[in-house]
Amino acid sequence: MSQFNLIERLRDRNLVSYISHENSLNEILQNNSISLYCGFDPTDNSLHIGHLLPLITLRRFQISGHKPIALIGGATSLIGDPSFKKKERIFCSKNSINLWTEQISKQISYFLDFNCGDKSAVLLNNNMWFNEINILTFLRDVGKHFSINTMINRTAVKQRIIRPDQGISFTEFSYNLLQAYDFFILHQKYKVLLQIGGADQWGNISSGMHLIYRKNRKKVFGLTIPLLIQSNGIKFGKTESGTIWLNSDKTSPYKFYQFWMNIDDSNVYYFLKMFTFLDILEINQREKERHIGNNIIYDKSCLAKSITELVHGKENLLSVERITNFLFSKKNIHIKESDFDQLKQDGIPSEQAHDIKDLQDALVLTGLAKSRTQAKNMIISDSISINRQKIRKNHIFNNQDKFFGKFTLLSRGKKNHSLLCW
Known about the structure:
CATH class of the largest domain: Alpha Beta
Structural class: alpha/beta
Number of strands: 13
Helix content: 40-55%
Number of helices: 18
CATH architecture of the largest domain: 3-Layer(aba) Sandwich
Strand order of the largest sheet: 1-6-5-2-3-4
CATH topology of the largest domain: Rossmann fold
Largest sheet: 6 strands, mixed
Number of domains: 3
Strand content: 5-15%
Shape: elongated
């Protein structure tokens, strides 16, 4: 094994919130290959960008010579993790969870190498062991090792108990033991020594460490990754229009890319360290030079491109770059029909072009103007474009205005766009 300090490298990239027995873990990582895991409950048909850091961290461990295990919570998702949730989750059906498990498993496979010899990643489902244990056995073999006093005093539980309008059900309360049992089984059958997860998972992770020590007298480890919270208190990845998903059918690659392009400038280098595989020394140097010219804009673009390619692949990144250049550049762009489908999905506002008489009608229909009079004034003032070409008088649309016979881009100024769909 390499002698570099992996934990310090993770810390340099802002990827360590809390870690147990750090010195012991460091010694093991520097001299041995280990197996580690992270769990993902399929509570929807896609992961979102809140899952990116655990996935990327698993990948960093694998690149460093360790064996990652991605655990799908086919059983635990039937209950739902209550950690720091304000109210109980709505239960999902078994059929939905089975379908979502397949979809999420495919997403996870993009991030890890499942064909690299001894360090090949493994994908498991905790249904494998929860389907084989009954409630009495679980209570005797697992429940007896946990103190209710300790569990109640955990912050995630206490926050719910003290709320008179919510409280916490026994079903949710038991989730902590279920995740602890996951760690125990993975340690026993797959020699897993480390569990990673978001900072809100520390209570669940430490319960697994406790169970393994009580039953086997073995020391295992936990590492949590910081949760990213925006200045408004909302988890990173949540926007006014909803969650930023990894599934391109739910969030188009273009919208995904634009999310990263619109992050606050103060976060650019912080996120370059966390989300990309650029050399840390290069990122530090870029940060020093951020005020030179438009460096920070270039570096933000580098961040957006890197993450979009990681999640959606090279072809979708090329599509995103075509769309971006088409909207914001004067270059002659050979845009594809599929690019317009992305724009129509969630890139910019779009309208069906029924019974449109002229450009003034179109501007009112799309909301770029409030009235035909305002539309007329905008056209005269040289602020309206059709397919990036300035229009200086009212216009009757013809086939030459329609890309692929279907799409016309209307623009007011440089940033306000709408897509007419014929």
